[in-house]
Amino acid sequence: MLETQAHQSSNIDDLAALFREQFAEKRFAEVGEAAREMRENVLELASPSMRQAEQLIAERVGARCIQILDGAARPPEEERAVTDILVAREIARVDLGVDLLVAQPR
To answer: Are 34 and 28 within 8 A, CB to CB?
Structure first.
């Protein structure tokens, strides 16, 4: 049986303030670090079979990125961050039924 939990509603100003605070956190200052953490967090929630498929998903993402770039190379740090974000997004979508949103400050 599912247990209900109380949830306080938020307005847009409250959410904007929360996001501004989080963008100021060191762990979100670098996109590579945030992408790695997002991938790790999604994997913690994913099913065992999806965790086993993680490397295959990463390979498919990498192959697709190469096609899009027409063989051009990205810096390794950028490649890692893009792969982490896309793998996390795919696992969350397929396994958890959740669409991830990645935002950046202006």
So the answer is: yes
Give the burial class of 65: count Cβ atoms within 10 A of its Cβ; 0-12 exposed, 13-18 middle, 19 or more buried: middle
**Reduced to 3 states, what is the DSSP secondary structure of residue 105?**
coil
pLDDT means per 10 residues, the chain with 106 residues, are 61 75 70 89 94 94 71 77 92 92 70
Distances (CA, A) of 33 to 21, 25, 78, 90, 105: 17, 11, 11, 18, 16
Answering whether pTM is above 0.70, one says: no
Name the token pair of 22: 């989080």
Tokens of 44: 């913690």
Q: Could you tell me how many helices (H) and strands (E) the chain has, helices first?
A: 5, 0
Nearest alpha-carbon partner for 39 in 78, 89, 77, 93: 89
Distance between CA atoms of residues 55 and 61, nearest Å: 10
